[in-house]
Amino acid sequence: MLGKLFGVEEVKAELQEAREDIQVLEHKLELKEKSIKQLENAVRILEENIKSLLDENDQLKARPDHFGRSSRASGEHMRLLKMYQCNQLSYQEIADKMTEYTGEKWSKSTVHYLLTKS
């Protein structure tokens, strides 16, 4: 009877509720930790892939047959350049037509270089 007067039963009920809440939170924490471990593994794999790709890129850059920058002139561009040259257009006229066609600025020196290189 004294226990009921001082609220012992209510305290016991609150304590039990708190224990249940703690169990739920511990379970949620375990799930979050598993999720974090999975994400860490995924990040580790991606970092390894990045390192591998960077190494491969460095190896490709170091190849002796790969000097300078790559040409922006595709096969189609080269065919157009040669066609314009056969039509007796000057390098400047060809550059103007290529600028118009591609939307990128072409200089007469680029046209000259590409036509003499091919």
From TrEMBL:
<protein>
    <submittedName>
        <fullName>Uncharacterized protein</fullName>
    </submittedName>
</protein>
<feature type="coiled-coil region">
    <location>
        <begin position="8"/>
        <end position="63"/>
    </location>
</feature>
<keyword id="KW-0175">Coiled coil</keyword>
